[in-house]
Amino acid sequence: MSVSSQENQHHNFPVEQAINDGKSQAAELEQSELEIILEFTETQRNMIMELTSALTLSVEVLLETAISYVYYNYKKYQEFANKLEELSIAQKNIYEQAHKQIENSPKCRKTLTKKLILAAEISHKLEELGMAEKINECVATGIDMLYKKLTNDK
Question: 39 with 113: CB under 8 angstroms?
Answer without folding.
Answer: yes
